[in-house]
Amino acid sequence: MTLIRVDSAARRLRFDGMEMDCEIGRGGVCPAVDKREGDGCTPLGRWPLRAVLLRPGRADPSGVKLPWRWVREGDGWSDDAADPAYNRPVRLPRPHSAESLWRSDDAYDVVVVLGHNDAPPVPGAGSAIFFHLYEGRPTAGCIAVARADMLRLLPLLHPGDAMEIA
Asked: What are the catalytic residues?
């Protein structure tokens, strides 16, 4: 296992001899046990890299070693604690709240799904904690890097790797 290390205080990410700027949640960081849906907090801890979501025409899967799939219009991620599919991918529209993975900005052109609160999900303890592209502002609790940095990192990531947020 190789770790992507995030220094949340310095807003720096380190991996395999590379170092780059990164962004965290608008609510700063918090212990994972204190993470709550909608608080904008990035959970501290070590999170496995589960899978990659790619937007067709905006990202190339060549060299991606993690499990990956294309994002389609209507793909979402449940963020409603009352939803039986909480913190899971879903199809939109649906009767429960869910974040769209097909965004008008570029943030979700490349998404690495982090294994936070997913084994099994605890309703209300935080959903959709991703590693994605930086769009000029703090995230809703995710880690984000510039597109060029993500594209350098992506082919180096393997199943079993994790992100450690400190």
From this structure: 132, 142
State how far the Cα of 105 lies from the Cα of 133, in Å rounded to an integer: 10
Q: Are 91 and 99 in contact (CB under 8 A)?
A: no
Q: Kindly list the distances between the CA atom of residue 166 and the CA atoms of 46, 68, 135, 161, in Å, as whole numbers in the listed order.
A: 9, 26, 22, 16
Which domain does 31 fall in, by range? Answer: 3-165
Q: What is the CATH number of the domain that holds 142?
A: 2.40.440
Select from 51, 13, 16, 1 the least CA-distant residue to 156: 16
* pTM for the whole structure: 0.97
pLDDT tens, N- to C-terminus, the chain (166 residues) = 899 999 999 999 999 999 999 999 999 999 999 999 999 999 999 999 999 999 999 999 999 999 999 999 999 999 999 999 999 999 999 999 999 999 999 999 999 999 999 999 999 999 999 999 999 999 999 999 999 999 999 999 999 999 999 9
Torsion-angle region of residue 57: left (phi > 0), alpha (psi -120 to 50) or beta? Answer: left
Residue type, 79: D
Number of structural domains in the chain:
1
